Amino acid sequence: MTSFAQLKEREESLLCRTYGRYPLAVKTAQGSVLTDFDGHEYIDLLSGIAVTNLGHSHPVLADVMNEQARKLVHLSNLFYQQEQLNLAEKLLATTHFDKAFFCNSGAEANEAAIKLARRYAQRVKGRDAGTVITLTGAFHGRTLATVAATGQAKFQDGFAPIPQGFLQVEWGSLEALESAIDSDTVAVLAEIVQGEGGIRPMSLEYARGMQKLCRKKDILFMVDEVQTGMCRTGRFWAYQHYGLEPDVITSAKALANGLPMGAMLATDDVARGFEPGSHATTFGAGALVSSVAEKVVDIMQHEPLAERADKVGSSFMEDVRKLGERLPGTIEEVRGLGLMIGIVLTFPGKDVWDELLRRGFVLNLTQERVLRLLPALNIAEEHLAAFLRALEEILSERTAN
Ligand code: PLP
């Protein structure tokens, strides 16, 4: 029988050491419950980092995969593909956008957005410009261009030379943004709620001010919805909370509920920046992944999952706040939108995170003190209640000691 120790040893001899793994290997997953190789069950509050928004091993998606796998899996983007068009139609209908470009990950979707912003400025607007502005605390991916956009030293360490053409400004300051925009700027790329950055939602004033500034300076306003997208924050897309109309958004994680897929959506005007041959990917939106993603969009529209995320997320955050009041000095802040939630502890949270895992709760710790929860949008409320009870016990024990 396979054990955790055996998997760990095999991995050390077989894989590049790029990941700091959690001490857990999952054998099967259903809904929001993970089962390890010893048969222990865990409640999944992370959803593969905001990917399996509909829960694991969704039976309807399994049927779609099965059926499509027997008909057509991949042809390449040399061909017209009905499955891709069906998906584009449904996905675009959730937005004000006119055109989609499909790829395979969040980083690739952002690469497409960056390339489109530059090409639109240079070829459509006739400008000699190329700088994309991003914000401190951002995370846009791990390819060379997206680590440049991410702008954090820890993700760039040892990878010099880092591509040029990115400028980072302080999150939260419209003045800093305004003074950074110059004749070389083509776009601002921003997350409405920073994920890796510790679940930081923008204020309404900041988000709207940013769009207004982009319009005033005639540059593109591009929103990275890779983590926030697909009903996670209580609307289909996070920008819709704020009444924004970005020129471009990027999406990935939840698009195909676990199969790799990314998308960049743009207005007709901006999409003129691309022509046949200017950008491409071999795998993007093959028949299998497209038919699964189309079904994901269908389910998200027909089951009121955004509304549920909004309602369940708000009442859960309220419960965590009350817990913080019962145990003063433990929880500094609870922030988030919908089911994208950060519980900010007043102290480094590694021990709390370890104990939660030991008690069967899978979540993420980011920025050292932020317990990050990204549960499936259909998670049972009793799973969230069980997490709260465990957190209260752990924090009470800590305050008692
Ligand atoms: N953008 C955001 C906001 C993300 O959270 C992530 C991944 O966590 C990415 C981009 C990169 O996505 P991927 O890992 O699929 O390349």
Question: How would you describe what is shown here?
Answer:
This protein is globular. The model has no long low-confidence stretch (mean pLDDT 97). It has two domains: 4-57 and 305-400, Aspartate Aminotransferase, domain 1; 72-302, Aspartate Aminotransferase, domain 2. The protein is 40% helix and 18% strand. It has 14 helices and 17 strands. The chain is α/β, with parallel strands linked by helices and 401 residues long. It binds pyridoxal-5'-phosphate. The site of pyridoxal-5'-phosphate has 15 residues, from α5.
List keywords for this structure.
alpha/beta, about 400 residues, four-stranded mixed beta sheet, seven-stranded mixed beta sheet, Aspartate Aminotransferase, domain 2, Aspartate Aminotransferase, domain 1, 2 domains, 14 helices, binds pyridoxal-5'-phosphate
Offer a concise description of the structure.
The protein is 40% helix and 18% strand. By secondary structure, the protein is an alpha/beta fold. The chain folds into 2 domains: 4-57 and 305-400, Aspartate Aminotransferase, domain 1, CATH 3.90.1150.10; 72-302, 3-Layer(aba) Sandwich (Aspartate Aminotransferase, domain 2).
